[in-house]
Amino acid sequence: MPYRDAEATLDEAMDGVLAERDVDLALVAVDDGSQDGGPELVRERARSDTRIVQLETGGAGLVVALETGWRSVDAPFVARMDADDVSVPGRIARASALLAERPELGAVGTRAEAFPPELVGEGLAHYVAWQNAIVSPEDHAREIWVESPLCHPSVVMRRTALESVGGYREERWAEDYDLWLRMHVSGFGLAKVPEVLLRWRHHARRATFAHARYELARFAECKARYLAPLLLARAAPVVVWGAGQTGRRFARALEAEGVRTSAFVDIDPRKIGRTARGAPIEPPSWLRARTDATILVAVGARGARALVRAQLDALSLPHVAVA
Q1: If you average pLDDT over residues 217-223, what whole number do you get?
Q2: Pairing with 59, which of 83, 135, 151, 240 sits 20 to 30 Å away (CA)?
Q3: Binning pLDDT at 50, 70 and 90, where does residue 211 land?
Q4: Model confidence over 230-276: pLDDT tens digits?
Q5: Rounded CA gap, 287 and 297, in Å?
Q6: What is the band of 210 on the pLDDT scale with cuts at 50, 70, 90?
Q7: In terms of Cα–Cα distance, which of 149, 153, 156 is closest to 95?
Q8: Three-class secondary structure of residue 111 per DSSP
Q9: Range with lowest mean pLDDT among 169-183, 193-207, 303-317
Q10: 159, 95 in Cβ contact below 8 A?
Q11: Helix or strand or coil: residue 86?
């Protein structure tokens, strides 16, 4: 549990974790440069609970704090927690049990509830509902390229999987999504306990809202980094369904990784017949003769992804949704 200036919520965050009764655990609290009373609060609680391990980084940043925390202890499973969230007792035990039962899984999260309601806008509510609908390993494999499918502070990870993919990395994009994609392409499954076992607190200072690594362009770059080698290995033409901003952004990210888009597909008659990033824009009917292509669905309008997938399924054309 990395923390910085989280005095107001630390007690509540620790309470839920320390209330776990069906699993042996240590709570590794990593102070990442706090200037408030948080470190003293943790020290005080550690005096009466030997399960609390205190570490500090001097403010080196989140990735260093995460790496410092999980590498400091020897345990088969590593659970995440954020200092401003609320863990429902039983979360860690339930996720750990699923990892123990399913050796192919690298990480198991849970469903989450975003709060407080007055700060949960329509976009965030839609994202949390999308995450919560993804449960099985098959669900996660299907949706992994769309967006980060796991709520990071809800997750318990297999230590050997973390070690195998190199732990957390400092990149231009979100450290958790980067980790899930590396686990996925390395063959580790992802899953969820289908219960709401984490309350995910949102506020204006949360990194999800404030940090440049969560910009849409950074997410496209992250996906392209790990998808490009798979596309290059397949050596098939790459077609992007979506000639709007979302599709062009993803095509640009793929270009930086050495993958050129051979064509775009769009339903807008004003775009058909034109070009985007040097590639022709074709109507959906054009795909009937392109069974050799790898089709990437990159549409930004809400609800459009499901409609496009349905059309491609009807044509029996394999595809990957990337937005």
Answers
A1: 97
A2: 151
A3: confident
A4: 999 999 999 999 999 999 999 999 999 999 999 999 999 999 999 99
A5: 13
A6: low
A7: 156
A8: strand
A9: 193-207
A10: no
A11: strand
Angle between helices 245-256 and 216-234 (to 10 degrees): 60
CA nearest neighbour of 134 among 120, 115, 147 = 147
Supply 199's token pair: 């309350």
Residue 208 reports pLDDT greater than 70: no
173-to-63, 176, 222, 237, 259 alpha-carbon distances in Å: 11, 9, 6, 27, 20
For residue 181, report the phi and psi dihedrals to the nearest 5 degrees: -65, -40
Place of tokens 């050799």: 292
- One domain, residues 8 and 87: yes
DSSP codes of every residue in 212-224:
GGGSHHHHHHHHH
Integer-rounded Cα radius of gyration of the chain: 21
Other Cβ atoms within 10 Å of 139 Cβ, number = 15
Measure the CA–CA gap between 258 and 273, rounded to whole angstroms. 25
- CA gap 34, 29 in Å, rounded: 12
Q: Are 187 and 281 found together in one domain?
A: no
* Residue that is last in its domain, among 176, 197, 214: 214
Same domain, yes or no: 165 and 33: yes
3-state secondary structure 23-63: CCCCEEEEECCCCCCHHHHHHHHHHHCCCEEEEECCCCCHH
Indicate the pTM of the whole model. 0.96
Query: Which of 268, 280, 251 has the alpha carbon at shortest distance from 304?
Result: 268
Task: Mark whether 134 and 230 lie in a shared domain.
Answer: no
Same domain, 26 and 163: yes
Q: Provide the token pair at 152.
A: 């990071």
The tokens 């999987």 sit on which residue? 161
CB under 8 Å to 320, separation ≥6 — which residues? 145, 227, 294, 295, 296, 297
